[in-house]
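## tool: complex_structure
## caller: assistant
## args:
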Amino acid sequence: MSDINLDKLPGGFKGMSEDIGSDQTTFKGVNWGKAMMWIFLLSDTFVFSCFLVAYMKVRASVVEPWPYPSEVFALEVMGVPVPLLLIAIMTFVLITSSGTMALAVKYGYEKNKKMCGWFVLLTAIGGLTFVGMQAFEWSKLIFHDGVRPWGNPFGAEQFGAFFFMITGFHGTHVSIGVIFLFIFARKVFRGDFDTGKRGYFTTMKSDYVSIEILGLYWHFVDLVWVFIFAFFYLW
Amino acid sequence: MTEAKKEQTSTHKIGIYLWIWGLLFVLSFFSYMVDWYNFQGLLRWSLILFFMFLKAGLIMAFFMHLFWERYALVNVLLWPMTAIACFVSLMMAEGKYTVFSRLFYFFVGGA
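## result:
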């Protein structure tokens, strides 16, 4: 892949038909791991879409009123309920970590070990903060408000099942991402990507493109949150 | 030589990331304001969707670099999502039918 001069290839739809019809690699100049990550993210998109579509369908067809998220997820600050306060902070934390990840990818391209490592580490800490706040949110709903997958005091019974399923699945993605971010921060600082040290699970040489692939996953997690925030919390 | 080429194709100025980052903050703030000011009905839904798609588009185009990718990859990703949009509209119709038949048979009763 390193020998292809992308500038000489035609762009746009003409380039697309030539890429596909070239009887060679379809995704010119795209690392195979990156292409695989995109395919995985596409399948993950379908999984999340199924959850959100199921939620939409049920919410549209229940006869009982759906719990009003603005009130369910309100937090009291000095005795005054502020709607969606925690969710708003979680959103900002996740966007912040997405931004730091974008910078980590940028410094990865430039083979700037120090900056790349620090930004990956910052991203991991942002993700950890997000998971922590989600744990707080869940425990408040479970222990304080008594929300269960089969019922809740606010309205339609299906609310709990969808809430725990959707945010739980997203939270799992974030947690897995955080684990990988910490592992890759260590790899960057150790200089694996500069020396091309071979990985633990693979005989292939390490390369900074891994940071970009990890970045794709992390941005995807942020992307899913954008949809959950809109459809579950704001709608 | 390969090194220089790589730099050329994949490194972008830091400014673009900071701009997108800032825009995402502003858009998130706006979508939170939709709830804060308690807009209701069509206005609420259209604003939520507008900010959502804008945010999603910015993240995919610039943070995930799709804007700079070749069409072969971009199209492989975007067309299946169109299928999801079709699925969503189908299930919307289905949901409306379900709530109609529930209300009809719960309150009007069957034959």
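## assistant note: The beta strands of chain A are 75-77, 80-82. Residues 32-234 of chain A form a domain with the Four Helix Bundle (Hemerythrin (Met), subunit A) fold (CATH 1.20.120.80). Handing back to user.
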